[in-house]
Amino acid sequence: MSFTCTECGYSTVKWLGRCPECQAWGTLEEKGAGKSSVKTKVKKSSGAKSINQIDSTLAQAKTTYVSEFDRVLGGGIVPGAVVLLSGEPGVGKSTLLLDVASRVAKFGAKVLYVTGEESAGQVRLRAERINALEDTLLLAAETDLGAVLGMIEAEEPEMLIVDSIQTLASSEIDGVPGGVTQVREVAAALIREAKARSLPTVLVGHITKDGTIAGPRLLEHLVDVVCNFEGERHSRLRLLRAVKNRFGPTDDVGCFDMEENGIKSLEDPSGLFLSRSGSNPPGTCLTVTQEGKRPLLVEVQSLITESAGGQSRRSVSGVDSSRVAMMLAVLSQKIGNISLAKSDVFTATVGGAKLAEPASDLAICLSLASAAIGKPMAAKFVAIGEISLSGEIRNVPNLGQRLNEASRLGITHAIVAHGALRNVSTPQGMRVKECEHVSEAVEILLGSNQ
């Protein structure tokens, strides 16, 4: 008698609540004692061909008519490819896929949309709201794997969407829907069907409390593409990232705008992260962050007030609290006339953007300095650079791409690290100032509003 982990295959002679190898809980299942006497029979087959005889045109990506979705997939969805889409509840996974299904169906393709979480009437209401009603879009509310496979055989769709894989179950396999055994069997059956019929398939996957996809880790290895759909509930912006992609890059990001009447692709999402007012108050500074390969212009805002209590407050939104604390320490130590120890500090981004990379350090620092001094930054001004504990401004990757994006959006002035322009061409019409230390950047803030 032995116990084997369904996640990583670790085997032990006694049951354990947690696998010592992969640290997963409740994944050890009992296996029968003794070795199996079943041997795989040798079959005669002539399926092997010269690689030069394989028709590569059968594996070319086809557009889904949703530009940002195609962008993340690598130009479109490949026939026979299986895409696993995960995301938090309520982020808009079903809305996105219903929009994709309707657009594909609009151009004559037959699409089968299987929902196991909602009734057909509920999906119909959403389709009416986002204008996704098409005659060739087939809808089925089904949770039995055998019934779904029968629909595929009867209807012969050109695209399959399953929402979600955790709701499907096979009557031939023990276990509850969503369990490790059921998810593994359902995924394997749908993948076999997709490969045999060259049927592009999208599977929706639930996520656990720690943000990972529910079910066995094997699920992510079986599929061709794994995408995460992200977004704050109180923000319109949604980001689609490819964690794994056998047909394209994994460093690109698709941007979507969630509206009342549906979801639409955002070719130019930078406008969501800029304030609409024409004024330029103290405490605001622009920077260019990168989401994958895509540069985004983001506005950082800071507010500094006198602390009413004995202990000062530090509140952040959209930025890393530890980096803001570090910028406050650098300003207090390296800039003589700025002291923020007894002040309440509030720092946030516009539009729900998240600044996680160090390239935003300089913009955060200048935003704080501008709020502390009470002097606004120059109009159409951007700051790009990482700041060390000594106050030195360091260069960041892809500076040329960031400056070009800022210039395209009308930015005319920029501050970067010393020597950063050595191998970078400055965009036409943009004045770029190189600074070695944060004190030099603050002097530019104090000296003029150029």
TrEMBL record:
A motif (RadA KNRFG motif) lies at residues 244-248. Residues 58-207 form the RecA family profile domain. GO terms for cellular component: cytosol. Pfam families: AAA_25, ChlI, Zn_ribbon_LapB. The keyword DNA-binding applies. The keyword Ribonucleoprotein does not apply. GO terms for biological process: recombinational repair. PROSITE patterns: RECA_2 (PS50162). Keywords: ATP-binding, DNA damage, DNA repair, DNA-binding, Hydrolase, Metal-binding, Nucleotide-binding, Stress response, Zinc, Zinc-finger. One of its GO terms (molecular function) is hydrolase activity. It comes from the Bacteria. ATP binds at G87, E88, P89, G90, V91, G92, K93, S94. Belongs to the RecA family. RadA subfamily. Plays a role in repairing double-strand DNA breaks, probably involving stabilizing or processing branched DNA or blocked replication forks. DNA-dependent ATPase involved in processing of recombination intermediates, plays a role in repairing DNA breaks. Stimulates the branch migration of RecA-mediated strand transfer reactions, allowing the 3' invading strand to extend heteroduplex DNA faster. Binds ssDNA in the presence of ADP but not other nucleotides, has ATPase activity that is stimulated by ssDNA and various branched DNA structures, but inhibited by SSB. Does not have RecA's homology-searching function. HAMAP family: RadA_bact. The middle region has homology to RecA with ATPase motifs including the RadA KNRFG motif, while the C-terminus is homologous to Lon protease. This is DNA repair protein RadA. It comes from Brevibacterium aurantiacum.
